[in-house]
Every structure is written in structure tokens, then in C-alpha cells.
Amino acid sequence: MSDFDYDLFVIGGGSGGVRAARVAAGEAGAKVALAEEDRYGGTCVIRGCVPKKLMVFASEYGTVAEDAKGYGWNIEAGSFDWGNFQQRLNAELDRLEGIYRNLLKNSGVTSYDARAKVKDAHTVELSSGETFTAKHILIATGGRPVRPEIPNAELGLVSDDIFHLETLPKSILIVGGGYIACEFACILNGLGVEVTQYYRGAQILRGFDEQARGLIAESMIENGVQLHCGTDIVEMRRATDEDLEGKSEAGVSMGASMQEMLADHSGGTPGEGPILVKGTNGDTKIYDQVFFATGRAPNTDDMGLEEAGVTLGRKGEIVVDDYSATAVPSIYAIGDVTDRVNLTPVAIREGMAFVETVFKDNPTKVDHELIPSAVFTQPEFGTVGLSEEDAAEQEPIEVYATSFRPMQTAFAGRPDRVMMKLVVSKETRKVLGCHIVAPNAGEMIQLAGIAVKMGATKEDFDRTVAVHPTMAEEMVTMRNPVRSA
Ligand SMILES: Cc1cc2nc3c(=O)[nH]c(=O)nc-3n(C[C@H](O)[C@H](O)[C@H](O)COP(=O)(O)OP(=O)(O)OC[C@H]3O[C@@H](n4cnc5c(N)ncnc54)[C@H](O)[C@@H]3O)c2cc1C
Asked: Which of 196, 229, 290, 362 is the most exposed place for a label (fewest CB within 10 A)?
């Protein structure tokens, strides 16, 4: 009999924690407990991927009526009802949370609705005051959005807040250039919000393929997002009556949405008012809301980790080895709290590899190479492998790329362009990177990702017969390199 209360105590009921707990209990027969301080399902289900993707879908319907007219339909677009959508969204999230709770229960995991911290290498203490011992402790506490350290930053929203707005703002300033900032710029623009985006870097989506970043930025601007790169906030504060009446010395410029806002003072969260922002680009504007998508921090504060001997990195992330083991042999960590590749499927894989290693006597490293991923901007971006720039630094390459107006939207009269690109090693002919900017690029890259992961060469792509007429057929019909580097 074990000397511990549990074989495994998992802290955090998000993507990684729930999967590890379920598999350890259900498949490996371990006695498992899990503590969750908020809602089961974690960031992905409650305030990340799932509600965001549903908002992406909601925002894309705005153009359907227009496109349908181009196809001969006599229809007019109605208006978007945020309250109605939000009610349905909340019901869906309640349903999904219920599923997560049941998955744990049905696998035999004991759940505690409490905050947990580590007391020592084998002891967990709950906010309820209870303590439990465990042979192994798994930290899967994820991360949280952080505001920049500027005066009045607390006036701004972060991604967690966006799903709970009582009314949709008429205008919003989104600060940041990463995937969350860009996705919400497109979502809110599609829902009819006047969107301004500030990003201090030279181009949005840093780290991704430059040609893809350029096309997405151009398309966002064409679709109505007022994107200002190389721009940051100089000052932000609650707007005064004088500002709103245009009488202050701040030199406020009045956008269309602001005029409307003055006529109908209903935008934003009740009890709060519009926000005045001065930008480094010289603009001073009043927005209903400001939304900071300026980064995330691992949830390691006040968890007793360093006291227990766990090493934390510069951002507060838990430092782990290839097997997700921390500096304390009985404590492991997976998912966003380790700040490796912060994506849901990666947290899940890390959870499963942990169970293989610790409970199935099968030491398993997580493979972080060639992870396909998508950015749900409009147009969408699917990507796997190296960008053209990174590949060129590594070895001589050939680039095969094409950009065109896809049949469906071109017929409807929209100017949208898509891009397909393969980055190929000159020496091995292997496809080192595949980048797609197009509607449903996320769906396409999942499949192209298999080929790239298998080590497919350009000639393997060429041997594959095209599916016609599709956008994706271009991936197998690009004959000549557009450039070498
Ligand atoms: C807006 C947004 C959009 C995203 N979109 C995508 C996407 O499209 N695709 C994708 O793959 N990824 C996406 N992500 C990232 C994805 O959500 C995360 O990578 C994933 O949720 C990480 O899982 P995790 O298990 O590490 O942590 P989480 O899912 O964050 O779970 C951690 C859990 O631990 C709980 N917790 C924290 N501290 C304690 C404590 N001390 N005691 C008890 N419980 C605690 C938290 O309440 C939380 O439920 C998105 C993230 C955001 C914010």
C-alpha cells in the first residue's frame, strides 16, 4: 500500500491537467486528484480557443449576405445581436465545462474546487485548508494575460474580459501584434466595431513568415482595421466631459464612432467611460474600450514552488527537462506554465508524455518540432516549419509561392487574395516550411503538416495529383521557384 494519499495530485484543470489526470487514472490505474480554482476546461475552453473560434465564426457571417448577392441571392444583412450570441456562447461553455467535469469523474479522478499550492515535494495544500500527500505532483496551472506597465493600464481590458462585455463597444483600441491581438482585431472588425490596432514593432505576427505577415496586415487594413505598426501608447486616461465635447487641450480627433458614441452613450461596460489615448504616431483619440493583448505570464505566483525547490525562469515559468520534470524529482510541470510552445494540443501531448514516463514505465519526450498551427485572422493563416527567413539562415533554399484571388470570393466581387508557399531545402529537397494564407488555412495546414512532418520532399508534393477546383491544389502545382536564397 502507498504511503501517500494519492499517486498523483494535479494542480490545474485545463487542457494539460485534465488530460494527464484522466489518462493516469483511467489507463494507468493511478489514484489521482485534481484541484481547479476556477472553471474546468481552463483557458482553452473557457476563455481562449473555443469562445474565440465561436466569435470568429460569428464575425465571418457579416460578409455572407454581401457575397451571396454576388451569387444571385436577394438578401440583406441584418444586424448582429451581441446579447443573443453571448447567451448562446455561455450556454455552450457551461455544457463543455460539464463534459470536462464528467470526464474526470468517469475516469475515477477526485476533483477539488479549490486553489492549490505546493507545501513540499510531496504535499499539496488547498485553499479550503485541507492538505494531501502525493507520490507525484503535476503543475498544470497555465498562464494569464498581463497588462503593460503604463499609468492607467487597469482601464484596459485583457482577453479574459472580452467574452463578458455587456455591450459591444462602438470603438476599440487593440494594443499588441501577436496572434491574439490580430485575431480579435479581425473578430471585432467583423462584428462592426471600429477597430484601431497599435503595435510597437515594424510588422504584426513577429516570428512568422514575412510574406504571410505582410499579406495578412494588408488584408486587415483593406477589411477596415486601422492598423498602426511602430506605434505605442504615450498616455491613456479616462476621457473627461471636456474631452468628449472636443473642448480640452488634448486635441482629440473625432472618429465616426465617437460622434455616435456621444449621441448614444451606451458603449462599453456600464459604470465606466470612454478612454482617451495619445499615440506615439501623434493621434489622440477617444475609444469606448482599450484591449491589451500584450503578453501572458505563467501562473506560478504564490504557489510555494521555489520554496519547495522548483526552479523558475526569468518570466516565472517552471523550468523543466525534456520529460517535463522539474528540479524536484517528484514534481513535474506541463503546458503554458512551462512556457515552451503555448498551444492546447501541445499541453495535451505533454500531459500524455508525462503519464507514459511516470506511470507506464515508458520514458517519453515531447516532440516540439514541426508543430502545425493556425492564426484565425481574416484571412486565416496556417503554418508549419520554418519561415523563409529562418530557413535561409540555416541552409540554401528554394521558395515556391503563389498569390491569387480565390474563385469563391473573386466571383462575389471581393478583392481578397490568398497565398501558398513552400520553403524547400536545395540539398535534401525536403519541404522545410509550408505557409498558407487563405480561408480555412487552419484546416489545410493540419493535413499538409502530416506530409512535412513525414519529411516530404518538393517532388513528393509534385507527385500528388491536384484536387480540382480547389485553392489547395496550388500546393502541388507550383513548378518553378520564385526565388533562391
Ligand atoms: C485568447 C486565447 C486564444 C487562444 N487560442 C488558441 C488556439 O486557437 N489554439 C491553441 O492551440 N491554443 C490557443 N490558446 C492557448 C491555449 O489556450 C493554451 O495553450 C492552453 O489552454 C494551455 O493549457 P494548460 O493546461 O497549460 O493551461 P490552462 O488551460 O490555462 O489551464 C490552467 C488551469 O489551472 C487553473 N489554476 C491556475 N492556478 C491554479 C492553482 N494554484 N490551483 C488550482 N488551479 C489553478 C486555472 O484556473 C486553469 O483552469 C489561446 C489562448 C488564449 C488566451
From this structure: 362
